[in-house]
Amino acid sequence: MTRLRRDPRAERTAIQVAGAARPRYDRTARRSSSGSGRPRRDPRAERAGQRVVGEARPRFDLSQVIRVEGPVIADTQPRATTAPAPPKILIVEDPAFLVAVVPDAPGGRLSAHDRQVLGAARALAGREGAVALLTLGACEGPGPAGADRWIRLDDGTEAYDPAGRAARIAAALNGLKPRHILFPESLDGGDLARRVAVRMGEPLFTNAEVVAANGLVRPAKGRRVEQRIAPGLLTTVAPDAVADYAGPPREARPVAVETEAASPAKLRILAAARVPADPATVPLALAEFVASAGNGITDLDTFRTLVAALRATPGASRVLCDAGLMPRHTQVGASGTVLAATCYFALGISGAPQHLQGVAGCEHVVAVNTDLHAAMIERAGLAIVQDAQIVMPALLRLLAQETGETP
Amino acid sequence: MKIAVLLSAGRHPVSGAAVLPRMEAQAIRLAAGLGEAIGLHAGPDAAAVREALGLGLARIEHVAIPEGGDPVPALIARLAALAPDLVLAGRRGQGGAESGIVPYALADALDLLLIPDVIAVTSGDGAGTLTLDQSLGRGALRRVSLRGPVLATVHPDAPPPLAYAYGRARRGSIDGLGSAPTLTAGPDMAVEERPYRRRPKLVKGAPTGGSAAERLKAATGESGSAAKGRLLVEPDPEEAAREILAYLRQIGVLAASSGASSDASTPTP
Ligand SMILES: Cc1cc2nc3c(=O)[nH]c(=O)nc-3n(C[C@H](O)[C@H](O)[C@H](O)COP(=O)(O)OP(=O)(O)OC[C@H]3O[C@@H](n4cnc5c(N)ncnc54)[C@H](O)[C@@H]3O)c2cc1C
Ligand SMILES: Nc1ncnc2c1ncn2[C@@H]1O[C@H](COP(=O)(O)O)[C@@H](O)[C@H]1O
User: For the whole model, what pTM was predicted?
Assistant: First the structure.
């Protein structure tokens, strides 16, 4: 009358799944042989059974109650991830109204500020409206940034003629008849917006920090008050105030507008030449591209040659400045300069919090460091774990080779 | 050369006290390097711009307009009579709507050439020509030579204003020019005013939707460029150099060389 004695070890080896590197056990097998006889629920498998296939985001059909009796192990195997389907392009066929955006698009690329303005325009357009991007010359990727229509005026002459440019854009806008027109409140965009406003004889709501269909808000009187208004025709949008468009890409259908040919203005501008900033002397806070040396760099002469060859502005970590190896005004960080650069190139810098504070605003970071676990490596968009002392000469060689190839 | 500097009644951004806006003080300095300049103010009270006398102007003309009136017609009338070769203004006012539209309205009405964001003015080689340095941001400039008359707005990167001199302020004079006949209201927008509310700063790369965990990640810099960053461990130095240059070209901070491979110059989508 004795009950069979259980041997847990033997039971476990019986249900061990063969082949797995880590010991794994199929506990569903056990219940068929022993136990209370009541099927054991497996919530995970049930959940997986409810999953709607073929969607990138997990979606579940909760109306289905599935009792999965099969072995659990089969489900926990990594499933082949289906390649994400190309995102659907949103099309607004017959918009109720248009929201026009005139970006700066320096060099044919939308700037971060332009993208924010497109995001603001998208918020104003809502479901019924369409966002029309109006550019002079080429522009990259208007669709993903949120444009439904794209009006491309030809570039015109290269000569600096802001009044003529404003006249052509105003003429195109008159042809387009949008409900709202948005500009970035940048140096160029702000100038253009004011010229267009004066030309159209319409009031301009400048430097809007909130853009929504129910109202625009701007600071005034030295930021002591804010002014709110229902969206009007002309608005400029402050930088870093409105989020980019984040939805699926839009169509950016090319549209043509007829504009009467502007009469050539009297040419009073005799010459205009761009004088690029000298990266060696531009203040660190204004620099576009900063290359910085830290305590990991011992060969500062090579570093200086490299900085000149890359046409970057030199920076340094506090250790080098304290040691007198680099001038104090090159110090990047909390007690140095906070950068507004597009790209930061850190050589042999560990990335102390005080240093990273100075780099917080940089969009792209490239780091070279021997330590895989340095904070700078973690922050970087391109991180290279290698001795900076040998990467610097390699960079110089490569640059010299390229200039040698192209005389 | 006849120079007019447009002076507005500003308010200090912190204390709210009446001051001359800094950019107009910088404009006075730019004018002082070129010749005799007069100030021009349209407003209810000339005392608002008295400070400009101490900063380098010898004479200010004041056109009285009623409180809340539009200064543009009064300024247009006076500037048309003066016909200066160079008009300097601030790029934005200070303490009002700060829209910076006044210079544009003047340039349009008087058919003046308008050059914004100027940081230096020198007289050019030919008679009646000027060379202006215009700030393009990040230390870059555009050097524009032109034939006047021109209206230029001053950028904050221009040289700092002259020091205030008490004696000069005592010697200078403010001439009232009578008042503009009628009250013309400015281009009015029905604005509703309330105390300023600071809004949270936009976190770069933060998803607008997404879970709280994702937003936290974005705020602490763990997502964005760091999350999708490339990591090369112990690469060949030549390989590392190629990667770095390709990356720098891709984001557009390094000029592409024609010898560079084609994938290096393709921009990010
Ligand atoms: C109040 C306060 C304010 C501060 N303010 C600032 C500030 O404004 N700016 C600032 O920079 N610091 C500041 N600091 C100092 C900061 O805390 C760090 O000490 C400093 O940033 C470290 O500099 P580093 O990364 O160059 O040096 P280290 O921390 O010594 O790092 C050197 C790095 O180089 C790497 N390395 C070594 N050899 C090589 C090689 N051959 N090739 C590649 N990599 C190599 C190492 O792995 C290491 O990661 C401040 C500190 C305090 C207390
Ligand atoms: N009432 C005024 N009198 C003279 N100049 C003015 C007046 N208002 C504005 N300005 C000029 O126009 C610039 C821009 O002002 P605003 O358009 O008010 O931002 C100012 O910096 C001044 O140079």
Answer: 0.75
pLDDT-derived band at A30, boundaries 50, 70, 90? low
Instruction: Identify the H or E element spanning A44.
Output: helix A43-50
In sequence order, what are the beta bridge partners of B3?
B37, B86
Nearest CA to A146 out of A242, A235, A58, A214 is that of A242
Q: Are residues B79 and B141 in the same domain?
A: yes
Does the model's ipTM exceed the 0.85 cut? no
pLDDT at A260: 64
Place of tokens 């607008």: B208
* Residue pLDDT, tens place only, A124-147: 998 899 999 999 888 888 888 999
Q: What is the pLDDT of residue B269?
A: 36
- Report the alpha-carbon distance of residue B13 to residue A406 in Å, rounded: 53
Identify which of B19, B63, B102 to mutate to test ligand 2's pocket (most ligand atoms within 8 A of the CB). Answer: B102
Q: Is residue A368 situated within a structural domain?
A: yes
Q: What is the CATH number of the domain that holds B23?
A: 3.40.50.620
Q: Output the CA torsion A320→A323→A326→A332 (10° steps).
A: 40
Same domain, yes or no, for A198 and A345?
no
8 A C-beta contact, residue A158 and residue A82? no
DSSP string computed for B119-162: EEEEE-SSTTEEEEEEE-STT-EEEEEEES-EEEEEPTTSPPPP
Considering the domain architecture, whether residues B34 and B111 belong to the same structural domain is answered as yes
Ligand 1 center from residue A331 Cα (angstroms): 11
A35 has a pLDDT exceeding 60: no
B97 touching A, CB under 8 A?
yes
Question: Has residue B268 got a pLDDT over 50?
Answer: no
Query: Domain range holding A45?
Result: 20-73
Which is more confidently placed, A403 or A199?
A199
| Any domain includes A263 | no
Ligand number nearest CA of B7 is 2
Interface test with A, best of B248, B258, B265, B266 (most A CBs within 10 A): B248
Residues B113 and B240 reside in one and the same domain: no
DSSP-derived letter for residue A389 is: H
Q: Which of A275, A299, A357, A362 to mutate to test the interface with B (most CBs of B within 10 A)?
A: A275
Count of residues in chain A: 407
The region of weakest confidence among A227-236, A275-284, A316-325, B143-152 is A275-284
Distance from chain centroid for Cα B65: 26
Residues B18, B61, single domain; the answer is yes
Residue range of the domain that includes B225: 212-260
- What token pair was written down for B157? 């990167």
Strand A343-347 relative to strand B141-147, pairing? unpaired
Q: Which chain A residues are closer than 8 Å to B199 by Cβ?
A: 209-210, 241
Mean of the pLDDT values across residues B234-241?
Answer: 92
Mean pLDDT value across residues A339-350: 92
| 8 A C-beta contact, residue A158 and residue A142 | no
Beta-strand pair B86-90/B3-6: parallel
Mean pLDDT of the region B94-111 = 91
Interface of B with A in 207-236 (CB under 8 A): 207-209, 221-222, 225-226, 228-235
**Are residues B156 and B216 located together in one domain of the fold?**
no
Where is average pLDDT lowest: A15-19, A183-187, A205-209? Answer: A15-19
Reported as a pLDDT band with limits 50, 70 and 90, residue B127 is confident
User: Under DSSP, is residue A29 helix (H, G, I), strand (E, B) or coil?
Assistant: helix
- Does one domain contain both A233 and A118? yes
